[in-house]
Every structure is written in structure tokens, then in C-alpha cells.
């Protein structure tokens, strides 16, 4: 029997494990993929307080190592659901069942990809899904942002302060995001809109060197030289296995406030998988700490 069962081995989940173990709770972390989460693909992390620069993979492995040294039990299995029997919560995986007194959901999100040639190969080599994480590495360079929602607009706004040129590429003729930001971007000399267009290929051998674009109205194709491309076409939460035990919003994110409490008794949510305004490395770690302490409080009641 585990005191705290954590589903998801990214920054939020591993931070929760550290806090759980330090509180003397027997803690389990189940991860279906690679431990560390999305940050493992970042070549550099320079926005985490107290750490000037570290690779994403090193940061993640340090977290995992710290959690394991405290006694956390890591398991590589895919979770298929949660059951409850006689007040005990049971995490069900493809391999077995794990009884727990409390559960922290820290499943993260998957960034929606463009699905074009060169994208996967050049991820971390000019292709990014987080402008605030990686934008500083493109200071003075020419970049592109792909998307038409608020995130894409905010990314273009952020990058325009550091990059010599920002192209904002959208498949439609108008943006879905805030009009206020759109009007602000129109006034920036280093921002250019490319509308009614899609990315057909991300080009480059070792690093991103450019994009192949196609205008959806004319069919015309053209090359656009850029050093980086920031994909902002949405995020996909991975909460389907839990829709019967906790409430989700219309987009599939777990309804949980800053206390990380969900609609399920003894079930907490931490990190990008829950409803929140800001999804960053620091907020994931903060959520992990809050969720673990909330779980400890629940166990003491």
C-alpha cells in the first residue's frame, strides 16, 4: 500500500515525489514514457531560479535521482485508469494494480505538432514548442511562429523583443486570439504576418535553416529563411483515463485550482494537466510541492 501514488514522471510529478518522501510518505511514481517530461528535449534551461544554465535532460535526471535517493519508487508502465474499493484508490496499469491512499495526477500535456517533414528531426535544433523557454537562444535572429490563437500571438509579441525578425504564420485570414495583441503586433516593424498559409516542410540539415510555405488560396509555394520556428497550434492533455474520477473542462484539462484539489476525494492534480493560466517549469514544480503537501494533509485527516 502506497501513501501517495503519482501518475506522471515530469517536473510536477517528481517534485511531488520529493516532497512526499521528505514528509515520510511511501511514494510511487508511474510514468508511461521517459521520466523527466517535456523539458528533457530542451537543449538548455535558463529560466529556472538558482540554475544559470543546464540541459533539459540533465535537469530531469537530477530530479529523478533526487526523488529516488529519498526512496521514491519509479515504475515504467502505462496507466489505464483509477478504481476505488473500500476507500482505497487503485491505479491500474497495463501490467498490474497499485493500491494508494491518495493520488496525484501529473500527466502533463502533449504539444500539438504540425506533422510535416523535418519537424521531429529538428526538434531542439531550431524547432520549439515554448517561446518563453527557448526564445532567448534566438536573440538577434530571424524566426517564425506558427499558429493563430492567443498563445501564438503572445509568442510573437515576446519574440519580437529579442529577435531581429518575427514571421507569424497562420492558415486563415484572421487570428482567433486577442485583437489587442494583433493590433500591437501590426505596429511592430520587425513583425510580419503571413496569412492563408501553411508550413509544408521545415528545412535544414543539422539546424533549422528555413520553411517551405504554401498559400492555401493560390497554391503558391515559397521558401522562407529562418533560424527557428515556434509551433503554437495547441496542447493536448492526457487525461482521458481519468474522466470518470475527476471533472475535466471542455478542453480536457483537470479542473483544479491553486490548491491542486480536484473533484475526486484524495485526488490532486499538478502541472500542465490542470486548468491554469501559466504553464512553465517553475509552475510545474510549484504545483508538485502544493499537491504533495495537500495529499499529506488529506492523509492526516
Instruction: State mean pLDDT (0 to 100 scale).
Output: 95
**Multimeric status of the protein:** single chain
**Low-pLDDT regions:** none
- What is the end-to-end distance? 18 Å
H/E element string?
Answer: EHEHEEEEEEHEHEHEEEEEEEH
Helix count from the secondary structure assignment: 6
Strand proportion: 25-35%
CATH superfamily of the largest domain: FAD/NAD(P)-binding domain
Number of strands: 17
The CATH first-level class of the largest domain comes to: Alpha Beta
CATH architecture name of the largest domain: 3-Layer(bba) Sandwich
What structural category arises from helix and sheet content?
alpha/beta
Q: Please give the share of residues in helix.
A: 10-25%
CATH topology of the largest domain: FAD/NAD(P)-binding domain
| Morphology call | elongated
Domain FAD/NAD(P)-binding: 2-288
EC number: 1.8.1.9
Subunit structure: Homodimer.
GO biological process, one term: removal of superoxide radicals
Verbal overview:
With 301 residues, this protein is α/β, with parallel strands linked by helices. It has 2 domains: 2-111 and 235-300, FAD/NAD(P)-binding domain (3-Layer(bba) Sandwich); 127-231, FAD/NAD(P)-binding domain. Helix content is 23%, strand content 28%. The chain is built from 6 helices and 17 strands. The protein has helices at residues 11-22, 56-69, 131-134, 150-159, 179-186, 281-300, and strands at residues 2-7, 27-31, 73-76, 79-85, 88-93, 97-105, 109-111, 127-128, 142-146, 165-169, 191-194, 197-203, 210-215, 221-225, 228-231, 235-237, 267-269. The strands form 4 sheets. Strands 1, 2, 3, 4, 5, 6 and 17 form a 7-stranded mixed beta sheet that branches. Strand 4 and strand 5 form a beta hairpin. The model has no long low-confidence stretch (mean pLDDT 95).
Amino acid at each position: 500500500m502506497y501513501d501517495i501514488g503519482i501518475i506522471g514522471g515530469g517536473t510536477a510529478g517528481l517534485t511531488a515525489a520529493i516532497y512526499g518522501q521528505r514528509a515520510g510518505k511511501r511514494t510511487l511514481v508511474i510514468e508511461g514514457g521517459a521520466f523527466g517530461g517535456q523539458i528533457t528535449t530542451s537543449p538548455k534551461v535558463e529560466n529556472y531560479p538558482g540554475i544559470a544554465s543546464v540541459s533539459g535532460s540533465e535537469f530531469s535526471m537530477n530530479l529523478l535521482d533526487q526523488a529516488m535517493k529519498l526512496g521514491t519508487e519509479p515504475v515504467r508502465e502505462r496507466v489505464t485508469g483509477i478504481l476505488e474499493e473500500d476507500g482505497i484508490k487503485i491505479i491500474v496499469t497495463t501490467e498490474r494494480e497499485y493500491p494508494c491512499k491518495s493520488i496525484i495526477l501529473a500527466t502533463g500535456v502533449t504539444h500539438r505538432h504540425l506533422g510535416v517533414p523535418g519537424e521531429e528531426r529538428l526538434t531542439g535544433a531550431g524547432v520549439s514548442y515554448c517561446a518563453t523557454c527557448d526564445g532567448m537562444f534566438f536573440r538577434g535572429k530571424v524566426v517564425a511562429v506558427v499558429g493563430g490563437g492567443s498563445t501564438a500571438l503572445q509568442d510573437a509579441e515576446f519574440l519580437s523583443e529579442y529577435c531581429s525578425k518575427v514571421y507569424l504564420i497562420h492558415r486563415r485570414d484572421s487570428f482567433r486570439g486577442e485583437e489587442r495583441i494583433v493590433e500591437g503586433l501590426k505596429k511592430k516593424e520587425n513583425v510580419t504576418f503571413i496569412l492563408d498559409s501553411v508550413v509544408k516542410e521545415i528545412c535544414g540539415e543539422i539546424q533549422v535553416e528555413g520553411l517551405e510555405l504554401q498559400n492555401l488560396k493560390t497554391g503558391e509555394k515559397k521558401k522562407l529563411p529562418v533560424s527557428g520556428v515556434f509551433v503554437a497550434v495547441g496542447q493536448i492533455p492526457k487525461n482521458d483515463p481519468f474522466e470518470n474520477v475527476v471533472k475535466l473542462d471542455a478542453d480536457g484539462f483537470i479542473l483544479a485550482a491553486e490548491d491542486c484539489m480536484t473533484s475526486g476525494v484524495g485526488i490532486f492534480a499538478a502541472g500542465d494537466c490542470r486548468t491554469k493560466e501559466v504553464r512553465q517549469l517553475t509552475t510545474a514544480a510549484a504545483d508538485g510541492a502544493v499537491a504533495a503537501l495537500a495529499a499529506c494533509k488529506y492523509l492526516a485527516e
